[in-house]
Amino acid sequence: xxxxxxxxxxxxxxxxxxxxxxxxxxxxxxxxxxxxxxxxxxxxxxxxxxxxxxxxxxxxxxxxxxxxxxxxxxxxxxxxxxxxxxxxxxxxxxxxxxxxxxxxxxxxxxxxxxxxxxxxxxxxxxxxxxxxxxxxxxxxxxxxxxxxxxxxxxxxxxxxxxxxxxxxxxxxxxxxxxxxxxxxxxxxxxxxxxxxxxxxxxxxxxxxxxxxxxxxxxxxxxxxxxxxxxxxxxxxxxxxxxxxxxxxxxxxxxxxxxxxxxxxxxxxxxxxxxxxxxxxxxxxxxxxxxxxxxxxxxxxxxxxxxxxxxxxxxxxxxxxxxxxxxxxxxxxxxxxxxxxxxxxxxxxxxxxxxxxxxxxxxxxxxxxxxxxxxxxxxxxxxxxxxxxxxxxxxxxxxxxxxxxxxxxxxxxxxxxxxxxxxxxxxxxxxxxxxxxxxxxxxxxxxxxxxxxxxxxxxxxxxxxxxxxxxxxxxxxxxxxxxxxxxxxxxxxxxxxxxxxxxxxxxxxxxxxxxxxxxxxxxxxxxxxxxxxxxxxxxxxxxxxxxxxxxxxxxxxxxxxxxxxxxxxxxxxxxxxxxxxxxxxxxxxxxxxxxxxxxxxxxxxxxxxxxxxxxxxxxxxxxxxxxxxxxxxxxxxxxxxxxxxxxxxxxxxxxxxxxxxxxxxxxxxxxxxxxxxxxxxxxxxxxxxxxxxxxxxxxxxxxxxxxxxxxxxxxxxxxxxxxxxxxxxxxxxxxxxxxxxxxxxxxxxxxxxxxxxxxxxxxxxxxxxxxxxxxxxxxxxxxxxxxxxxxxxxxxxxxxxxxxxxxxxxxxxxxxxxxxxxxxxxxxxxxxxxxxxxxxxxxxxxxxxxxxxxxxxxxxxxxxxxxxxxxxxxxxxxxxxxxxxxxxxxxxxxxxxxxxxxxxxxxxxxxxxxxxxxxxxxxxxxxxxxxxxxxxxxxxxxxxxxxxxxxxxxxxxxxxxxxxxxxxxxxxxxxxxxxxxxxxxxxxxxxxxxxxxxxxxxxxxxxxxxxxxxxxxxxxx
Length: 1020
Hints:
Blueprint: E1 6-10, H1 14-26, E2 30-34, H2 37-46, E3 51-55, H3 63-73, E4 78-83, H4 88-96, E5 100-105, H5 110-144, E6 146-152, E7 157-160, H6 162-167, H7 179-184, H8 188-204, E8 208-215, E9 221-232, E10 238-247, H9 249-271, H10 273-297, H11 300-310, E11 314-318, E12 324-327, H12 329-335, H13 348-352, H14 371-374, E13 379-387, E14 393-405, E15 408-418, H15 420-449, H16 454-480, E16 486-492, E17 497-500, H17 504-508, H18 512-522, H19 528-540, E18 548-553, E19 559-570, E20 576-585, H20 587-601, H21 611-628, E21 632-639, H22 642-649, H23 651-668, E22 674-679, E23 682-687, H24 692-709, E24 711-712, E25 718-719, E26 722-729, H25 736-752, E27 758-760, H26 763-785, E28 788-797, E29 802-813, E30 819-820, H27 826-831, H28 835-855, E31 861-865, H29 876-886, E32 894-899, H30 900-905, H31 907-918, E33 923-929, H32 935-939, E34 946-949, H33 951-954, H34 961-976, E35 980-983, H35 989-998, E36 1002-1003, H36 1014-1018
Parallel strand pairs: 1-2, 1-3, 3-4, 4-5, 26-27, 29-31, 31-32, 32-33, 33-34, 34-35, 35-36
Antiparallel strand pairs: 6-7, 6-10, 8-9, 9-10, 11-12, 11-15, 13-14, 14-15, 16-17, 16-20, 18-19, 19-20, 21-23, 21-26, 22-23, 24-25, 28-29, 28-36, 29-30
């Protein structure tokens, strides 16, 4: 809670004083009163007041004298004068006093007085926060020995913070900073280098980053680090150079000490190599342990994602429709895709598995991958093709396994690998075996024909044996070259290993000889190993088995899972003489599969239920409520202005906000309640067995909790609120889809009512949204059928009462020729994302109108309205430039009008947009000026040319002295900033004459003319 805002009322009219006091106390202000000036001074001496409301004429002192006395005691206090006899001179004299925020004329407009005090309160709190921020910056600079500076090369003026004085050995303010003085403090040996760097930075228009020595006031030497950037004006000349200046002497000393220490350490390493190597090994083990602990602390989601993308195998997931739910990086790399979004949601059979290698179609109903989720059993295919993104194919081996949730299949996971290398190995082996058999057959036939030349046959037989030996050697090399996650083995007819390829060491840590000796001891007690023994025995009997899994200990004690694929080798009599097999390490895949069900139900960021699981829970609660004839509630929550957080601060802050909200909600809900993140910034809560009154009570509590606790720890703490829609079941829906839709409608209505509130669903909301959707279609039809039209309203120069230009005003033409004003359809267009299309239509048609005005020698300007979304339209700038060129329009005759609210919400984009069009000669007008609290503050950041005074100040101008004072103040501010003013909604002669007297530059309204079609203007 902030401190109480204290107000002192100095007024000798007791009924008026009592009235003001009551209103202020109702609104939370602490109020004291003093009927006379001397009483007021005593009150101020005894305690501070943020605001003093003082009558101009008191019995013992004038109001202005009293303000001067109080200001001497309390310089920060603000003042509001009240009087029954105001003159222009007395008003100006009073307002010119420091900290006077308003001059009110009796009888008082209490609402306006309250608004003025609220604005002053906001200003005081903002100034206090700014002062605190500046003090924090000063302390931070002092603590870090960092100062900031600004230098203006064209004038030579140099400004720096207090810390730079201290770094140079001076007291703050002791000397006047100049560039020449600072140059004197640069060490003589570094001066040429310093000037060279600064001059190069100015000439080449890039920042500089430099270290050099300085001489302090007492003659001591320090080492400084300076970073500088340059701001250039429109002509490309350097306008300002600014940056930071830091004393890094101690850091340099530390670095030098570290260098010496490193040299000593290196010497010790050379002297005691063996000892340090042992220590290093221990340290490596400790670091490895620490990393394992740190990795274990990270969330399961990170583990899953890391596992998914780090495995060499390609992996993807399918739902029960055969659509892709995820892919890993190996998949993308293997099949030539850049982004997972190219595949998510698509039928994978149609993408990678739609035809055989001979280009004949592969019917989807024959796809064996689907058996996993259709029949609930795993599938292993060791020789098919998948098609890459470039149209080529690769041979693959794949496994497809079902994923269960609560005994229900929710999809499958498919792993596959490129077997090109294995295929080549198999082809080589087949060729060599066939050739050997051919050689043996040839030699046997020749021996049967004749016994002559036995010696020659013996020699040739030896040559055959040599070829066989070489073939076996080549076969062995091919086997030993298998990938790291495979090893090859052979067993004899009794099951004993006769060969194991060396790659086993990469998988299990054992050499082939070590594994020979301890194979049976390596097997774990997992039940899968019993099944593996049975399958192995069947293979030895000549009954080939599909691939099977075994669980086995690594040499380091960890458990690995291998998939074995064995093939019996038969002799001529069909007896099994050996077994050939390939073992594959599938540990990572199995770990991933075991955690996939966990991932299927939860949102990866917040660990809450996701939309799919939430809808299942909602359907269950609905059935239970119908069976038991009870009620429940659904709360639909949406963060207010979440897009602003993401766009301005970045997605990391957006994620932080979502996590904080989920934590707040988890703390509040009951054990029986069900919480989920539906996606984006949408959350939902099921409240079983809850009546409407209780649901509203819980909703109010959640609003209060988020209002007080949901904030981002940024430089200026950002407080975020939520809007909540409530639907009662089964009253507002008897199925999940209807209930969610109605709760969403109620939430949207809460946002329309001002955000940071809740709303319960009613049939009216549904009718409203249906009406809005009807309007959306009418707007789209109007764009297609060109049913929009621009009418022109004159803007008059008050100085000579002549038309200076026109404002183009948008209307929608109905079928009955009736014109619909923009306020009726533009908010809907903005909500449904059609507003940018309307902006583009307005620009194109306004340019055609301007061309027509120029053809008829109308030497006037045209004001074109743009929506707040114009700044986010990446193509609008180029469209405007093209239309200007296409219609041969002088850009100086175009004024683009934008609202103050739109600019404040998109400040950085607005500044870029305005600068881009002003660079070619276009001008800008700020609409509704004065309607927001921050109008004057933002003016200094915006290069607009015209300020359009909000019509609420003009409508009652002829009989409201307050409005007259405010408009006068706005005009004076505009003149000081060299901007022109335009008054809108001028409807009477009296108002026009007052505007002339005040000094407004332009006016528009029905007094001068209503908006008219273009042809009536042109031919007038």
